[in-house]
Amino acid sequence: MSTTPASALIDERIATLGGWRGDTLAALRALLHDAVPNIVEEWKWSNPVWSLDGIVCTGEAYKSAVKMTFPRGAALPDPKGLFNASLEGKVRRAIDFHEGGKLDKPALKALFRAAVAANQAARR
After folding, report:
1. Residue 51 falls within a domain, yes or no?
2. Quick one: pLDDT at residue 123?
3. DSSP assignment of 12-59
4. What range(s) does the YdhG-like domain occupy (predicted)?
5. What average pLDDT score do residues 81-87 get?
6. What burial class does residue 108 get, using C-beta atoms within 10 Å of its C-beta: 0-12 exposed, 13-18 middle, 19+ buried?
7. pTM over cut 0.90
8. Would 1 be classed as within a structural domain?
9. Mean pLDDT on 34-60
10. Which among 1, 2, 36, 65 has the fewest CB atoms less than 10 Å away?
11. Among candidates 62, 66, 50, which has minimal Cα distance to 115?
12. What secondary structure letter does DSSP report for 102?
């Protein structure tokens, strides 16, 4: 088990990725912190994980996409249609961000907050 703080491991991942993938992951991380100021950063499965009363989402980087996976995504409201991956599952959903794509910041913030609310509701 690493003694390196998760935030440092995430910083390292962003720096290692560089380019559009690093920029995208950094922007998504900043949006998460803006939307949910008390979000907890973790490092699991060799990837960034953001949690509050349960996992909100993970951040994974692939050659052609940065993916955010929401474990409870199928139960979340998505009026802007952000979810574009892992749509066949009954529980989780994901968003693939590609080079040159624009982030719908208000919709993403609403989705992050909805994921936290779903975690909190499940704990009651």
Report:
1. yes
2. 82
3. HHHHHH-HHHHHHHHHHHHHHHHH-TT-EEEEETTEEEEESSSEEEEE
4. 22-116
5. 94
6. buried
7. yes
8. no
9. 97
10. 1
11. 50
12. P
Residue 11 lies in a domain: yes
Q: Whose structure tokens read 């574009």?
A: 84
Check if the beta carbon of residue 47 is closer than 8 Å to that of residue 59.
yes
Confidence of residue 1 (pLDDT cuts 50, 70, 90): low
Among candidates 52, 62, 79, which has minimal Cα distance to 70? 52
Look up the domain containing 66 and give its range.
Answer: 6-123
Kindly report the CATH number assigned to the domain that includes residue 67: 3.90.1150.200
Q: Cα–Cα–Cα angle for 28, 6, 23, nearest 5°?
A: 30
Report whether pLDDT(111) > 70.
Answer: yes
Give the whole-angstrom CA distance, residue 121 versus residue 20.
35
| DSSP single-letter state for residue 103 | P
Indicate the angle between helix axes 19-35 and 105-123, nearest 10 degrees: 60
Residue 36 lies in a domain: yes
Q: Give me the amino acid identity at 68.
A: M
Higher pLDDT, 90 or 50: 50
* Cα(56)–Cα(34) distance, integer angstroms: 14
Beta bridge partners of 34: none
